[in-house]
Amino acid sequence: MKFVAFERTKQGTGASRRLRITGKTPGIVYGGDAAPQLIELDHNALWHAIKKEAFHSTVLEMELDGKITKVLLRDVNMHPYKQLVQHIDFQRVDANTRLTMKVPMHYTGEENSQAVKLEHCLVNHVVNELQVSCLPVDLPESINVDLSGLKKGVSLHLSDITLPKGVKAVTRGVNNPVLVSVVATVEEAPDPATAAAAPAAAAPAAGKAASGKAAPAAKAPAAKK
User: Fold this and answer.
1) Which residue(s) pair with 183 in the sheet?
2) Which strands, in side-by-side order, build the sheet including 121-125?
């Protein structure tokens, strides 16, 4: 994914505020052998770019002064309540140096699995993005996982999937984390008190129905002449 940046000559809070008023977003590029460089980007173009998943999880091509530099998005500073990007950070990428990034997980096929289709289980996506280590050329835009083989009571672990070539998962503290869990639905049991009261209430009604009609009312005594 490619974007265009421009060199920024002024820095400081006041300069950044004036830049935002003109529809620009201040930023910085750091890393590699070169010194950090101040940049600015068109805010409207940037606003549309950050809505795309690939802008956050892939190696980007930054065009600056006619030259292309490979970078990664490292930080986006948003305004507390306005739709405004206040500042953005990028890191230069070395083709021969492994990088660590979080990659989104894309799950498909769960609606066709035995767990959902036949056993009526609930499927929970425990991990929605996975931190990986790889060379820039091997960085995947996403990791796609087919869930059509899910069964009741069987969770999907990291060891159950195949990562793209050259990609290693980075886990801290858990060697084989759960990616997707399968939970059986539990039917609500009837209230014991309600169940016991139901036969008792039905008995008088049944007796009344068997008699066919109610007993006649007692006649009033005749009036004396």
Assistant:
1) 122
2) 121-125, 178-184, 156-157
Q: 3-state class of 114 per DSSP?
A: helix
pLDDT in tens, 109-147: 999 999 999 999 999 999 999 999 999 999 999 999 999
pTM summary value: 0.73
CA distance 25 to 6: 10
> Dihedral of CA 41/45/51/56: which sign?
negative
| Residue at token pair 């940037």 | 46
| Alpha-carbon distances, residue 50 vs 84, 97, 193 (angstroms) | 11, 25, 57
Tell me the per-residue pLDDT of 138-196, one tens digit each, with 9 for 90 and over. 999 999 999 999 999 899 999 999 999 999 999 988 889 999 999 988 654 555 555 55
Q: Tell me whether strands 121-125 and 85-92 are parallel, antiparallel or unpaired.
A: unpaired
Can you tell me the distance from the alpha carbon of 60 to that of 75, in angstroms, rounded to the nearest whole number? 14
* Helical spans, DSSP H, in the chain: 13-21, 43-49, 53-57, 114-117, 192-211
Number of C-beta neighbours around residue 163 at 10 A: 16
| Cβ-contact 80, 121 below 8 angstroms | no
Distance CA 69, CA 94 (A): 10
